[in-house]
Amino acid sequence: MRDLRDRVICIVGASSGIGRATALACAQAGMNVAVAARRIDLLESLAREIESHGRVALPVACDVQFDADVSALIERCLEHFGRLDAVLANSGYGHQGCVVDLTDESLRRIFEVNFFGTVRVAREAVRAFRASGRGHLMITSSCLSRFTLPYFGAYSATKAAQTQVARSLRLELQREGIDVSVIHPITTMTEFHDASADVSGIRRRGVPRHAPRLFVQPPERVARAIVRCLRRPRAEVWTSHITRLVAGAMVAFPRFHDFCLRKELALQAAYLDVESISGKAEVAAEGAAG
Ligand SMILES: NC(=O)c1ccc[n+]([C@@H]2O[C@H](COP(=O)([O-])OP(=O)(O)OC[C@H]3O[C@@H](n4cnc5c(N)ncnc54)[C@H](OP(=O)(O)O)[C@@H]3O)[C@@H](O)[C@H]2O)c1
Fold first, then answer.
1. What is the per-residue DSSP string for 177-220?
2. Distances from the Cα of 96 to the Cαs of 7, 167, 212, in angstroms?
3. Which of 29, 142, 148, 204 gets the highest tally of CB atoms within 10 A of its CB?
């Protein structure tokens, strides 16, 4: 068991949801926390909350699409705290649509943030860890790295890519004293779902439909699992054992995958205006999202 007191973590994608909850859970565990994302106002209020737990916080504006932002972030962490023990690469968003109907531009953008953004954070984190001879890199992937949902093909592809990179890094960096863990949250109640429907230009009908309660979690639950993993590093963190088992079965038996997900498609159709999940709606939505 590692003592987390006075250790330093940098959480990239900390302005909301899982990243925000993890920042607070780390502070409660005694860690000092650098919080990064694009929305600096949210990071500054989060930093004040962290400081109210008697810990040191550093809010840093960072867009993971830019190498310079990510390298400046890690440099600032080292300057400010004099050490860096762990980094969580957590930034990400969803883009729903049938992959063949999405524009190349939107496909490149989701890979730029979810996959290349993760690689940028990993590269700079590992550079710092190598200099100190230790460190823990954590990557927020998803249960959707193992199976997918209708209209989540592009997103799932980015999550599968993250997971495989994490697995190979874990083996490659082990001898250097660097731990690598990948986190597989299930449906988590955050801004993610509204943001991904908005960026995809999807019209919704009535109240949001989420997975059955058994498969829905608050971000605090994911945060607690991440803190446990910081204390005792593990290769993969699943926040739902049943999903882990079902995911394994879906990988082994593709017809089981399709059977389960065909039902999901019908349920989704009742809530989403499936007609609006098309490349045409998406272009307008991306313009509006900037
Ligand atoms: N919610 C779920 O059901 C679920 C399930 C499995 C996995 N996940 C994964 O969990 C991670 C966190 O998602 P969440 O559910 O907590 O959603 P969220 O509340 O929307 O948080 C996403 C975070 O990513 C940041 N981000 C997005 N684009 C960025 C960019 N270009 N540069 C830097 N930061 C960026 C956002 O901050 P700014 O907008 O301020 O930049 C925000 O802090 C994501 O990787 C997501 O794929 C979520």
1. TEEEEEEE--EE-STHHHHHHHHHT--B-SS---S-GGGEE-HH
2. 38, 26, 20
3. 142
Q: How far is CA 78 from CA 3, 24, 125, 130, 158, in A?
A: 20, 20, 11, 13, 29
| Most ligand 1 atoms within 8 A of CB, residue of 12, 39, 108, 192 to mutate | 192
238 phi and psi angles, rounded to 5 deg: -110, 135
CATH homologous superfamily of domain 8-289? NAD(P)-binding Rossmann-like Domain (3.40.50.720)
Q: Is 271 labeled as catalytic in the residue annotation?
A: no
Tens-place pLDDT, residues 90-125: 999 999 888 998 999 999 999 999 999 999 999 999
Q: How far is the CA of 175 from the centre of ligand 1 (A)?
A: 31
pLDDT digits (tens, 9 = 90+) for 182-210: 999 999 999 998 898 888 887 665 555 55
Residue 255 Cα to ligand 1 middle (Å): 31
Of 93, 151, 155, 271, the active-site residue reads 155
Q: Is 39 touching ligand 1 by the criterion CB < 6 Å?
A: yes
User: Quick one: tokens of 26?
Assistant: 């780390």
Cα of 250 from ligand 1 centre, angstroms:
26
How far lies 68's CA from each of 144, 146, 273, in Å?
Answer: 30, 32, 40
What are the boundaries of each domain within the chain? 8-289
Report the percentage of the chain scoring pLDDT > 90: 76
